[in-house]
From TrEMBL:
<keyword id="KW-0805">Transcription regulation</keyword>
<dbReference type="InterPro" id="IPR036388">
    <property type="entry name" value="WH-like_DNA-bd_sf"/>
</dbReference>
<dbReference type="GO" id="GO:0003677">
    <property type="term" value="F:DNA binding"/>
</dbReference>
<keyword id="KW-0804">Transcription</keyword>
<dbReference type="InterPro" id="IPR005119">
    <property type="entry name" value="LysR_subst-bd"/>
</dbReference>
<dbReference type="Pfam" id="PF00126">
    <property type="entry name" value="HTH_1"/>
</dbReference>
<feature type="domain" description="HTH lysR-type">
    <location>
        <begin position="3"/>
        <end position="60"/>
    </location>
</feature>
<dbReference type="Pfam" id="PF03466">
    <property type="entry name" value="LysR_substrate"/>
</dbReference>
<protein>
    <submittedName>
        <fullName>LysR family transcriptional regulator</fullName>
    </submittedName>
</protein>
<dbReference type="GO" id="GO:0032993">
    <property type="term" value="C:protein-DNA complex"/>
</dbReference>
<dbReference type="InterPro" id="IPR000847">
    <property type="entry name" value="LysR_HTH_N"/>
</dbReference>
<dbReference type="GO" id="GO:0003700">
    <property type="term" value="F:DNA-binding transcription factor activity"/>
</dbReference>
<comment type="similarity">
    <text>Belongs to the LysR transcriptional regulatory family.</text>
</comment>
<keyword id="KW-0238">DNA-binding</keyword>
<dbReference type="InterPro" id="IPR036390">
    <property type="entry name" value="WH_DNA-bd_sf"/>
</dbReference>
Length: 297
C-alpha cells in the first residue's frame, strides 16, 4: 500500500472545508480530479472517508480517524526541508565529545556554554576519559572530538588533526597546614621527603614528563607514593595527606577540604590541552564546534 502525500493533502483539505468545490478552489484545481483522487484513496484504504448527500459532505468514522494522522504527516513533511538544512549546516545533530578531567576545570565549561548558545538544537554527549582512551575512541570513530593532553603518538598522527587550546603552568597541590606553605611560593627542594601522587606515564606521558622535569630541574628525585588516573582522585589523595602533587593551574578550581594550591619557586613547563579529531570526519556539527573553538583561542 503506497499512500502519496498528495492524496493526504487533498483529503485533509476536503475534510477541513467539508465541501469539494471550496476544497478544489483552495487547491487551485478543478473538482473532478479532486473527487477522483479521494475515491482512489478510499479504495486504497478499503473504507469510505466521506459521506456525500444533498446536505453536503461529512466525515465518516474512518475519515475522522485518518484526519489527525494525515495532518501530522503533512506537517512533518513540510518541516523536512528545514530539518535537512539544519543538519547540513550543523545547526542540529549530535556531537560526541571526550575530555580529560583537567579540562573540566578550564576550557570545557565555557566552551560548552558558548556552543550551546550558538547551536541549541545539537545534542551533546560527553565522556570523561584519559588521553590514551580518547585516542582509541577517536580512531574508532566512537567520539567526534577529544580534549586531551599531547603528544599524539605516531599511530594517531596520520589520522587525527590537532588544535592547541590551552597552555598553563603547573602548581603545587599539598595537604593544608604544612608550615612550609606559609610562603607565597614553595621551593620543591623543601618537599623532597614527601611522596608524589602522579598520573601513570602510559596514561599521560606528556603530563608525567612535564612534572618530573620540574623535579629534575630542582635537583630532587621524587618518591612516587601513589598513581591515579583522575585529577579528582589525585586531589582527594592529597586531601587525605597521602602526599603532594603537581597539577595544571586550572585544577586549583577544584576545591577540596584539606588541600592548598600554591605556585612554585621553580619555573615549570606549560602543560598543553588540545582538541583532536579525525581528519576524515566531515560532520557539519563537528565543523561548527571546531569553528567556535578556533574563535575562542
Amino acid at each position: 500500500m503506497n499512500i502519496e502525500l498528495r492524496q493526504l493533502r487533498y483529503f485533509a483539505t476536503v475534510a477541513e472545508e467539508l465541501h469539494f468545490g471550496r476544497a478544489a478552489r483552495r487547491l487551485h484545481m478543478t473538482q473532478p480530479p479532486l473527487s477522483q483522487t479521494i475515491m482512489a484513496l478510499e479504495e486504497l484504504l478499503g473504507a469510505p472517508l466521506f459521506e456525500r448527500n444533498r446536505r453536503g459532505v461529512t466525515l465518516t468514522a474512518a475519515g475522522a480517524a485518518l484526519l489527525p494522522e494525515a495532518q501530522r504527516l503533512l506537517q512533518q513533511a513540510a518541516g523536512l526541508p528545514e530539518l535537512v538544512q539544519r543538519a547540513a549546516t550543523g545547526a542540529s545533530g549530535r556531537l560526541a565529545l571526550a575530555f580529560v578531567s583537567s579540562a573540566d576545570y578550564s576550557v570545557l565549561p565555557p566552551s560548552l556554554r558558548a556552543y550551546r548558545a550558538e547551536y541549541p538544537q545539537v545534542e551533546i554527549t560527553l565522556k570523561e576519559a584519559t588521553s590514551d582512551l580518547q585516542l582509541d575512541d577517536l580512531l574508532a570513530g566512537r567520539v567526534d572530538a577529544g580534549l586531551l593532553i599531547p603528544p599524539l603518538p605516531d599511530r594517531a598522527r596520520q589520522e587525527l588533526e590537532y588544535l592547541p587550546v590551552l597552555r598553563e603552568p603547573l602548581v603545587l597541590a599539598a595537604p593544608a597546614g604544612l608550615p612550609l606553605l606559609a610562603a607565597a611560593s614553595v621551593d620543591l627542594r623543601t618537599l623532597a621527603g614527601m611522596p608524589l601522587i602522579i598520573f601513570p606515564r602510559h596514561i599521560s606521558p606528556g603530563l608525567y614528563d612535564a612534572i618530573l622535569s620540574v623535579f629534575r630541574a630542582a635537583g630532587v628525585t621524587p618518591e612516587v607514593g601513589q598513581e591515579a588516573i583522575q585529577m579528582q582522585t589525585i586531589v582527594s589523595l592529597v586531601s587525605a595527606g597521602m602526599g603532594i602533587a603537581l597539577v595544571p593551574q586550572s585544577v586549583s578550581n577544584l576545591r577540596r577540604p584539606g588541600v592548598e594550591y600554591l605556585p612554585l619557586v621553580q619555573s615549570t613547563p606549560l602543560v598543553e590541552t588540545g582538541l583532536a579529531w579525525r581528519r576524515d570526519n566531515a560532520s557539519p556539527v563537528l565543523r561548527g564546534f571546531l569553528e567556535l573553538m578556533k574563535k575562542r583561542i
